[in-house]
Give the backbone structure.
Amino acid sequence: MTEVCIIYDKVRFEEKALYEKAQKKGVKAQIVDGKTLTITTDSKKKDFALGDVILQRSVSHYRGLYLTACLEFLGFKVINKFQVGETCGNKLITSLVLAKNKVPTPKTQFAFAAESALETINKTGFPIVLKPIVGSWGRGVFPLRDSEVASMIVEMREEDDSPLSRIYYVQEMINRPPRDIRCIVVGDHVVTAIYRYSAENEWRTNVARGGKAELAPITKELEDLALKAAKAVGGGILGVDMMEDKDRGLIVHEVNNTVEFHGAASVSENDIPGAIIEYAVKIARK
C-alpha cells in the first residue's frame, strides 16, 4: 500500500484536511513535524520511515526549501520539488521564469540599491507597488502613491538587517477590479478557481488578511494560463494567482509553492485535498 507522508512545521486546516482525506480514501498516511528531523551527509533513505512520497507542507519557506533538498538527497520523492520551491519562493526568480516562458505578467523592474530603486520608482511614476522578493500573505507589500512615501519605505528597507531588503522588486499597479483569482493546480488539472476580494480598508486580496472567497468559473483562457504558469515553474501542487487587467485580460502575478487552500475549500464544489492525495499516490507509483 502506498504511504503518503505529510511534513509540517505548523498544523493548519490544510494539513488536517490532507491527513483526514488520505484516511477516508484508504491511503496509508503519516504526519511528521519537520522540526524533529535531523539529516546528515552520511544519512541513508532507509534510516527514515517517511513513506513512498512526501507532501512538503512547512509554513517556513526556508525550512521547507532546505529540508526538501535534504530529502531529495536521500532519494525521497517530494512534492513540490526543491527547484519548484526555490523558484516560487522568490518573486524575482518567478517573474523571470514566467517572462521567459511568455506567461503574461505585470511589468516588473528590479533594482539593487536604494538610489537606483528611487530613480526607477520616480521615473516610472505613481501609483506603483514595492514588494519583498521573499514573503507571503502580503507582508511587506506597499502601494507607493507619491515620492515622499516611496523615500520613507526605501529608507525603512535600507535599515532592515536582511540582505534581501536591498533588492528592490518594483511592479506596476494593475488597473483591475477589487479582487484577484487564485487557481489551485494539481498536476495537469485546475482543481478549482476562486475570486479573492479585498477586506474593508484593505487593498490586498489575501484571505489571511480577511479577504472574501467566491467561486470563479474555470474558463478555457484561465485554465490554459494557469497550466502554462504551473508548467513554467516546474509543476506540482501550486496556487497560481492572477489579476484581471482591464486592458490586457488575465495576467499572472504570483505562483505559490506550499499553497493554502482553506479559503478555496470553503466555496469550491471540487474535492481539493482529495485531488492532492490522488496526485501524491500517482507520483509515488511512477
The two ends are 14 Å apart (CA to CA). The mean pLDDT is 95. The first strand starts at residue 3 and ends at 8. The chain is about 35% helix and 25% strand.
